[in-house]
Amino acid sequence: MRLLAFLPIAGALFAQTDAQPTADWIRSPEPIKQAWGARVIAEQKLNALIPELLRIVESPETSADADAARFAALDTLIQLNAEVPVRDLEPLVDRFPTDVLILASRSHEDASDLLLKLLDRQHNREAFVAVGDLLTPKRIAGFAKAAMKEFCQSAAVYVYNADQTERGGMGWSGDTIGETDPARADWPDTGSYRIYPGTGNRRQAWTLLADGAHPVSFVRTANKGYSDHGFDVSGEESGNNSCIRAEEFLALYLETSTSQMPVHASARLDVVWTTPEAFETAVRGFMTEQRVRYGLLAGQLAARGYLTADEASKAKLNLRIHAQDMRQHDRTPLPDLNK
Fold first, then answer.
1. What's the domain count of the chain?
2. Would the pLDDT of 133 be above 90?
3. Quick check: is 168 in a domain?
4. pLDDT (0 to 100) of residue 331
5. Does 91 fall in a domain?
6. Structure confidence by residue, pLDDT tens digits, 25-54
7. pTM for the predicted model, two decimal places
8. Which domain holds residue 162?
9. Under 8 Å CB-to-CB from 325, ≥6 apart: which residues?
10. Residue 295 lies in a domain
């Protein structure tokens, strides 16, 4: 029997007590046995035991071991492509956001509110894009609000001398942070999921999570960490970041192209250096113009019913401005742009 392969691994933890020990394991009050049961159910594709997995997910127990068993149950539900009620996923948004995202994306219920809750907690670009891919086709107003919150403008101010002919550019990037979790000895390997942009390739077993202009996929890795890191902060680059993706989603809501948007995630101002006062006046004027443009964007969304008039009036641009001193002479210190 295939089941016998698990007995040496589990050691003395479990004993075969009847003809269907898998059912006994998943029904056990001990979280470690529940986790082993979830693994066997996945291995043998025992869809008849999905209600038992749901019972573990629904359990109000919140101990570390109970959460580990719940993590294993969620993994098996994902592998079995099972339907999980949205009400059972809502309490898990903070603890298991990636599993919730995957299961909500497959739900036959309206999971819009649940998907939006995932953006209320810390998330990365991939999670934002996945939710956007899922909700934008339905033009869910709540996502337009989320995209406005996600949107920011990175504005570069290039300073030159009047007689300077060479003009440069710049880029920016962010680091990807990874974590290593302590292994749970005697517990089975279970699936941990991460989300990535794209659809993978022939050598990578990626599963499509959400389709769109920028599709997002997920990858399962078996380990004993029992932690969800799929929403951890990921790398941000000048041409691929959450602010740009938010601009693209908002353009879809307005049925226009990004080139026609009143404000953009990336902006540039060239300033010919004369005096500190003239430099500051030029930069302050540019910043004011960008904020006005952001107000126009909010007004356009309100006109289509995606924002209320009050929300539009309170919209405030997250503006990140930085100077690049390209002057070849006269290195008078530049005024502080962030005062």
1. 1
2. yes
3. yes
4. 80
5. no
6. 999 999 999 999 999 999 999 999 999 999
7. 0.88
8. 132-176+237-339
9. 159, 331, 334
10. yes
